[in-house]
Amino acid sequence: MKKKSVLEGESVTLDPGVTKKTNDVMTWFSDDTLLAEITGDQSKICTDVQCKERFRDRLKLDHQTGSLIITNTRNTDTGEYKLQINSISLRRRRRSISSEKRFEVTVVADPASGLSSGAVAGIVVAVLLV
Which of 36, 51, 78, 118 has the fewest CB atoms found within 10 Å of its own CB? Predict the structure, then answer.
């Protein structure tokens, strides 16, 4: 498992470190949510509502490498990401998992941005109690 750490608001690239073959289907997941799929020169990003809301316009794909890029990262992006690479046999029209890559992403608050969201929430609660 590759571990990545990124400051909140920055971009992170999850690079599988493989060369994409013509008959490969590359599928990205976060937990059990389908994020993206590359089939040949076509791709789909966030096709379900849950994914669209969580990653609205923040996911990009590199079709040459199969890399997933998350822009403007948020604390909620912290977690495990998985890439399944399936090879399709054109003769048999069968799909088989040829490899799987895992990434652990940790998004940390930028200390230069001031107070963390937890600190702000604590201040709001304290003011409401007073």
Answer: 118
Is residue 61 a contact partner of residue 45, using CB atoms and an 8 Å limit?
yes
- Coil, strand, or helix at residue 11? coil
For residue 70, the one-letter residue type is: I
The phi, psi pair for 21, rounded to 5°, reads: -95, 160
Q: In 3D, which of 103, 102, 55, 47 has the Cα closest to residue 76?
A: 55
Q: Is 60 exposed, middle or buried (0-12, 13-18, 19+ CB in 10 A)?
A: middle
Condensed to tens digits (0 to 9), the pLDDT of residues 106-122 reads 999 877 665 556 665 66
Q: How far apart are the C-alpha atoms of 94 and 117, rounded to whole Å?
A: 48
Amino acid at position 128, single letter = L
Q: For the whole model, what pTM was predicted?
A: 0.77
